[in-house]
Structure formats: C-alpha cells, structure tokens
Amino acid sequence: QKRTSYDYEPTIGGAPKKAKKSSFIPLPDELARTGALVNVRNTDDEECFKWSVLAALHPHVNDPKDVHSYLDYENELNFAGLTFPMNRSNIPQFEKQNQIRVNLFGYDNNNRKRKTIFPVMVSKETQERLVELLCITNDNTAHYSWIKQFSALMGDTDQHYCRYCLGGFEGEELLKNHMRLCQLLEPQKVDFPSGLDAILSDKYPEIILQAPYVIYADFECIQPRVQGSSDDEADRKLIKLTDHQPSGYAYKVVGPVDEATQSVVVYRGQNVVENFMDAIHEENERIKKLRKKTWKTNKATVLDICYICKDELPSPKDIYVSPNEEYLGNLCWKCSPKYNEEVIVVFHNLTNYDGHFIMADRKTAENCKFCISSSINTYSSFTIGSIKFIDSLSFVKDSLANLVS
Predict the structure, then answer these.
(1) Which residues, including other chains, have CB under 8 Å from residue 401's CB and lie 6 or more apart?
(2) Whole-angstrom Cα distance, residue 110 to residue 222?
(3) Where do the segments described as Disordered lie (predicted)?
C-alpha cells in the first residue's frame, strides 16, 4: 500500500498535532475555593461524565483530578447505546444499565453577587450507589464534575440540604420530614432576594388612602311595552316585549366634613342620564374647591416623611387628613398629585344594569378615558374626566335589600 508523508503525524517537532475535542472546563474560583468538587482534567476527550462517575466510585486514588487514575476502572461502567458528550436526557438510561443513581445540579455564573447552584435532575431510581454531579458551562461546551461534599458546595457544612429545593436544615430528621412533601414536586431552587430587593413595598402605595369623597347613586326605570310585541309564549323567546327607560335617579355625596356631605338628591323627569351627568360634574367642581382648603394641624406633629411612599421630605407642604379630620401625615411632590384626584361614584350592579344607560349616552362615552370591560357593552368600571364609576356588587355579592337589612 502506497503511503505519503501526509499519512504520518510527528510526535515531536514538526507540524503540530490535530487538536482533539475536549469538554474540560476549569472550575471558577468561587467553586474551587469550596473544596467540594473533584474536577477531572479530561483534556483529550469529551467523556467527563464517565470520569466524574468513576471519581465518585473510587474516591481514594492518588490523584483524583488525573484521568489516568481511573483507566484501570474504565470498563466497570456500561455505556452501551450511549454517546459522548453525555446528554442529560440519556442519564436515566445510564442509571438503569449501571445500577447507579445520579443527581445532577447546575451552576449559574450570571449572578455576580454570589454563586447560584440549582437542581437539574434528582434521580427517581432506588439503587444504593449515588453519584452527585455538577454541570458547568461556557459558550462552547458543558462539563461534569463530581460533588464530593454537597454541604460545602452550598456554603454551610453544618446544614443538611434537600436535593429537590436546596433548602438547608439543622438536622437529618427535619430534612426527612421536609422531603416527604418536597419530593412530590419537580426540582426547583428557592432564591430569596437580598439587599434593597428584600424590602417588600407596594407598587401603587396611593391606593392605601381612603377616598374622601364618594357619591352613591342609583337609577330608576320604567318598562313600557314595545310596539308590536306579543304575549304569545312562542314569541317571547324571539321578540323584545318591554324596554327599560330611565325615569329618574337619586344620589348622595359623602365626604370627610359636614359641608361636603349633602342630603339625597332626587330627580324624576326627561333626559335622565344627561341631567345626572350634569349634576355629577357640578358636584365634582364643588368638591375640587373643598380640596383646596388648608387643614389646620399642630406643627409639632408634622412628620418629615411622606405618608404614602415613606420617602424623606425636604420641604413638606401638602397635608393629608383622614376622613375624620385627623392628621395622618405629609405627602411628597410625587405622591401629592396622586392623592384623591378622582371622585368615586358607586352604583350597585353598574356592570349589568346602570352602566348601560351611562355608556349609551354618546357624549359621555366619547369623554371616557379609561374603562374595564368584560364584554363589548359591559363595563365594571370606567372613568370620565376625574370621575370614576365603580360597581359595589364587585365587592359585596348581595342585593341592596339584604345589605341594609
């Protein structure tokens, strides 16, 4: 057989050898410092899974990080039908072929503040032999290392750690009681926030304030028969018999002071919805004037933090007073505009009844700047200017008759 010089690769000098693929990744410093891992240097192959398993089965070799320490044990493991690099999905097959349980964990190095270990796969097998591996990755490959001491890897050797959620416990009995429930779930990592992120705060803190001005309203309707309708039983399923037409309304303004609260206003006549909206807008203008009043407070009690967001106040000016005229605190420049901008109008069953009449008025519908709709003509809440309409039935699921009885 004829050969050329291209068939030979020199072992010393001359052209370099062809680079062999390797899955080896050196441990990041924060992992290496724990002393919890054995990272076998497989610089000439992609069989790090095999070497890591052998490292776990033969922990007393002279140099645990050297591939050559495990060559005598290489044939102990059955990798029939499996290829390297080992895919995570093939690990269950390896477990069955070798009677070994494998727990796999991952490492997130994107969090620069601290290392993050998380469970990837917890074995469902029952074999006595257990191997726990950590998978680290870079842009090119993934690499397995044997976890020699799990508690050291997690950062506290006095704790007993659940492999399903990585929660730490002071005793084995506590861990066993916990795992009876935790093992019913998929592996997960519970990560608690730290620093300022650990402080729970409201996204919309202004909603803690009680609305000082509320208008409670109701429509009354008549039901004239629709012309051409019939009382025939069959026709009732097809033809509209009566029409609901507003015949009047009543409302009452409730506010924090006596001058804001009025007696019930009642109207009966024509153009009910139009007259109602005009009356509500007039009430809104009257309430705006009341809001501009300066409330008298004892200066000794004035606080230097915002009542809503709790930020410090360099020069507090706005005062928030509760509905009973009790001083509660000051508002900052950010929260002051949010304070009680809207007058709340409450209907019972606004969604399915009263709201239909209001939104049917074209002028009113055109001025609507926000609405919460459950269907094309059903609104549980809508805002017209600075007047917000809400449905009390959304909060108390009962009739008015039962609520006042």
Answers:
(1) none
(2) 68
(3) 1-21
Q: Is 205-293+342-404 assigned to CATH 3.30.420?
A: yes
Cβ atoms of 255 and 293 closer than 8 Å: no
Distance CA 216, CA 220 (A): 14
- Give pLDDT, residue 3: 38
What pLDDT band is residue 18 in, cutting at 50, 70 and 90? very low
What's the pLDDT at 224? 84
First vs last C-alpha separation in the chain: 109
Q: What is the three-class DSSP state of 358?
A: helix
**Domain-by-domain residue ranges, the chain?**
19-194, 205-293+342-404, 295-334
Residue 146 amino acid letter? W
Range picked from 235-239, 249-253, 322-326 for highest mean pLDDT = 249-253
Confidence (pTM): 0.49
How many Å apart are CA 37 and CA 51, to the nearest integer? 13
Q: For residue 389, which phi and psi values (nearest 5 degrees)?
A: -100, 130
pLDDT at position 15 over 60: no
How many residues belong to the chain? Answer: 405
Residue 199 CB coordination number (10 Å): 7
Using DSSP, how many helices (H) and how many strands (E) does the chain show? 9, 16
The confidence score (pLDDT) of residue 145 equals 94
Q: Is the dihedral of CA 12, 13, 17, 22 positive or negative?
A: positive
Q: 352: which DSSP letter?
A: I
Cα–Cα dist 404/326, whole Å:
28
Outline where DSSP puts E strands in 99-167.
Answer: 101-108, 116-121, 130-137, 142-147, 160-161
40, with CB counted inside 10 A (0-12, 13-18, 19+), is buried
Q: pLDDT by residue (tens digit) across 336-355?
A: 776 666 788 999 988 888 88
Q: Are 217 and 276 in contact (CB under 8 A)?
A: yes
**Beta strands 214-222 and 245-254, pairing class:** antiparallel
Give the Cα separation of 382 and 377 in Å (integer).
Answer: 12
DSSP tag of 312 = B
